[in-house]
Design brief:
about 250 residues
């Protein structure tokens, strides 16, 4: 099911209950195998299942800044996509309160043949903004992105850094209650990264909820107070972010 609005608790921003997520893996084989399957009428492909998350539960309170941590393949990005609604759980429930906005992939939702200007209106609408709200925020979005000269250029000609600037700027101007970030701050130059972090701190000061996935352990230690450590799809630690980071460094 899609993420649902939380109705029963005013202090909880994100609710994850007994979530499992499985992906099907279809295996195809050689031409000889396919010929044998064809004449023996056996199935042409074998389907296996990979469990990315296994019975994960946690609540994130309003105003909390939480890092989803773990090595590659731990399930942290999958968890973030479930919260955002990009993916649906195989079982269990995911809920949220308020407006949710996510930077899951650089340039996700951008149409390559549209200009930066057109994509601002497209992505703003996808993120729940009205046309009037987008028009009101348009100049601030462009100014923050620092790509004024290219705003009427088709985004297929943008560098990954330009994608980042525009995607981040549109997202933060939707004024989300829950802000999801997946590794996106690793793209772009250092001055813009500092600008993004400064804006994130401003959102934190306004009481917004932050859920972040990043391999930059120093950055998440500075931005987050709490960490949720995943290992092969299971939650192994939920506590102070520095404790989670220390455990990762010891195991690394």
């Amino acid at each position: 099911m899609n993420p649902q609005h939380i109705k029963d608790s005013t202090h909880v921003a994100v609710h994850v209950s007994h979530v499992k997520k499985e992906f099907s893996l279809r295996h195809t084989h050689t031409l000889k195998d396919r010929l044998v399957w064809r004449f023996t009428r056996r199935n042409q492909a074998q389907t296996d299942y990979f469990r990315a998350l296994d019975d994960v539960s946690f609540d994130i309170k309003k105003g909390e800044s939480v890092a989803l941590l773990g090595f590659n393949g731990s399930g942290k990005s999958t968890m973030l996509k479930l919260i955002s609604g990009v993916l649906q759980p195989t079982s269990g429930t995911v809920g949220y309160r308020g407006r949710i906005a996510g930077l899951i992939e650089v340039g996700a939702g951008f149409h390559p043949d549209l200009t930066g200007r057109e994509n601002i209106f497209l992505n703003g609408a996808i993120l729940g903004m009205t046309k009037a709200q987008i028009e009101e925020s348009f100049d601030e979005i462009v100014a923050f992105s620092e790509i004024e000269k290219f705003i009427d250029t088709e985004v297929k000609f943008y560098s990954s850094g330009m994608f980042l600037r525009l995607a981040f700027s549109v997202c933060i101007h939707t004024n989300p209650d829950v802000f999801l970030i997946d590794e996106i701050l690793s793209v772009g130059d250092e001055p813009f990264q500092r600008k993004c972090i400064q804006r994130i701190r401003q959102l934190q000061g306004e009481g917004k909820t932050l859920v972040i996935v990043s391999h930059d352990l120093n950055m998440v230690s500075e931005l987050c107070d709490r960490g949720i450590l995943l290992e092969r799809g299971t939650m192994v630690l939920d506590g102070p972010v520095k404790e989670c980071v220390a455990r990762m460094r010891n195991e690394g």
